[in-house]
């Protein structure tokens, strides 16, 4: 890594010690750094992951522990394994963990979280919590990789669809200020290759998204008849929708203000932006006022609907009562997936 000297318009090389040189261990340092700031670390890797925990026991039949366990927005399980230096058995260890974790039920993940963390996970996911762990991914973090490991990763990925990412990390140290930096780079697949693979329908760097051939198939997995009935009603009325994620959209003045996602037992509603007294408004109208909570640093709201009266109140509100309300905070389409195509619409 180069340090920029603007005054002299020059570069200077930073020291690049190994993790061992600066006494950074896997479990007591690197693992702690990541678990204390997961968003920053995963973002550096170009990933959006929700950290479930560290030192996770994958099975009662082994004494081993997974370094870090996470899920992606599609509910896919992500096994993260850390190594100083490089180790030929790094990937084999992670594969065995992923195999054991594949036997887990969604509730096994939720048991590792408290109520606040479960709410945060619900807000993070773009699928129902019951869809957690339908697929597994592996992320290897190390200072270096043997050629044999990288070839094996490519073979497993290309031939068998195993989703593996190999990330190289390195420490950079500024001897003048004594500041330390962690440099991260993807070794396999390369970012450009990952994008190309996704465009061709392969799974590098991304989990496959849930997709149904039609509306009937999309709602087949919903067990709550109130949810099914409401969605069928709205789809019949040509409500704007996104079949890939079982979503209905509601706009005011051309701006998207709510989207509703059908889940197995209820419907998840996201309100983009706020209006005066909105918390009280929804709490008074819904059967369970506790389901109304501010999200995204208070810029938006999320709520759940699970009964016919709830759906009726919501529909009356967004199509009549709130038509002339004054909005503040948030951008109408911020944070909402815009990848839909005409082929995805109901």
UniProtKB/TrEMBL annotation:
GO MF annotations in UniProt: nucleic acid binding
Protein name per the record: DUF91 domain-containing protein
């Amino acid at each position: 890594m180069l340090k920029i000297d603007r005054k002299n318009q020059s570069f200077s090389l930073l020291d690049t010690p190994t993790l061992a040189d600066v006494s950074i261990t896997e479990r007591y340092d690197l693992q702690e750094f990541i678990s204390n700031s997961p968003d920053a670390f995963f973002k550096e890797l170009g990933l959006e992951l929700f950290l479930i925990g560290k030192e996770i026991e994958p099975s009662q039949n082994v004494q081993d522990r997974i370094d870090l366990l996470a899920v992606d927005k599609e509910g896919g399980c992500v096994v993260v394994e850390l190594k100083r230096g490089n180790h030929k058995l790094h990937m084999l260890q992670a594969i065995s963990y992923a195999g054991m974790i594949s036997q887990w039920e969604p509730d096994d993940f939720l048991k590792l979280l408290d109520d606040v963390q479960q709410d945060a996970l619900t807000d993070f996911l773009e699928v129902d919590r019951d869809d957690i762990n339908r697929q597994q991914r592996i992320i290897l973090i190390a200072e270096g990789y043997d050629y044999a490991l990288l070839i094996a990763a490519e073979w497993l990925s290309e031939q068998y669809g195993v989703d593996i990412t190999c990330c190289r990390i390195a420490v950079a140290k500024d001897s003048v200020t004594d500041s330390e930096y962690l440099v991260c780079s993807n070794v396999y697949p390369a970012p450009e290759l990952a994008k190309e693979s996704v465009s061709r329908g392969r799974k590098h760097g991304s989990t496959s998204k849930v997709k149904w051939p039609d509306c009937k198939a999309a709602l087949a997995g919903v067990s709550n008849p109130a949810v099914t009935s409401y969605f069928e009603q709205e789809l019949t009325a040509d409500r704007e929708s996104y079949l890939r994620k079982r979503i209905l959209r509601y706009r005011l003045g051309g701006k998207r203000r709510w989207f509703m996602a059908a889940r197995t037992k209820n419907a998840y509603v996201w309100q983009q932006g706020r209006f005066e007294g909105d918390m009280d408004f929804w709490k008074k109208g819904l059967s369970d006022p506790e389901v109304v909570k501010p999200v995204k640093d208070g810029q938006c709201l999320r709520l759940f609907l699970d009964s016919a009266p709830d759906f009726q109140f919501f529909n009356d509100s967004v199509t009549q009562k709130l038509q002339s309300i004054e909005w503040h905070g948030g951008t109408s389409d911020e944070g909402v997936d815009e990848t839909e195509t005409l082929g995805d619409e109901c």
